[in-house]
Amino acid sequence: xxxxxxRGGRSPVVAEVDGGTAELRPDPDRxxxxxxxxxxxxxxxxxxxxxxxxxxxxxxxxxHAVDLAAPAGRPLHVLHLGGGALTLPRYVAxxxxxxxxxxxEVDVRLTALIRAELPLPERARIRVRQGDARAVLGKVPDGWxxxxxxxxxxxxVTPAHLTTAEFLxxxxxxxxxxxxxxxxxxDGPPLAYLRAQTATAAAAFPEVCVTAAPAVWRGRRFGNAVxxxxxxxxxxxxxxxxxxxxxxxxxxxxxxxxxxxAAGARPVTDATAxxxxxxxxxxxx
Length: 285
Hints:
The protein has helices at 57-68, 87-95, 108-117, 133-137, 165-174, 192-204, 214-217, 236-245, 255-262, and strands at residues 2-3, 13-17, 20-26, 33-38, 41-47, 77-81, 100-105, 126-130, 145-150, 175-187, 207-212, 223-230, 251-254. It is an alpha/beta fold and 285 residues long. Helix 1 (57-68) packs antiparallel against helix 8 (236-245) and helix 5 (165-174) crosses helix 6 (192-204).
């Protein structure tokens, strides 16, 4: 593990982990905040003084899903597929005390780095389970989760086996009735991956909505989209309000408009799946 003195006095931490090279880079604007990068790609932002602060656009949109999954403050059972720096588990612990959480993370050395450098809050009921996200999902009891958050990237792409109808069948098994599935997706023009993921979710759940920046929807740039799905009605009106007032405003698509967007796309299966498209080099420049 290597440290380099930064201008602000804190040292970036660089370490080799199972998935490549991890760097914890100090946020110059927040005294105890850090950005996690894997092989140069930003993955997470954590503020140890304020775990309810969500810096990244996609994290705020996942945070909206946490906020709207139940009345404010009610503890939840949450399964996080993809651990990283454990930003969302920290957020849930801060905003919904006494929540019971599990986080699946395949990278053992990354988890050790995060535990050492960005320790979890005391009394946070967060269990990190080492292993592949789909394998961990398969071991969770039926109906255990109020909320499942999928934010799994190997480098800058989502593995193919976490994009399929068979994977979502496992998600539905673990969700309680009325529970919510939230997924961070990344795509760019012509949005074929996002269309296919929308079609796959719509085949598994009666209610689906997707939030993305207008420029992403128009196919003008690569970016993140957050998909929510449930067997119960989603809080689309409140999601729309929150997305419109975010620092980076987003647009929520639902119902007929979303069906039209995904028209012609076929649900992805284990036999046909591919990993998500890699971002163009300029995204992280």
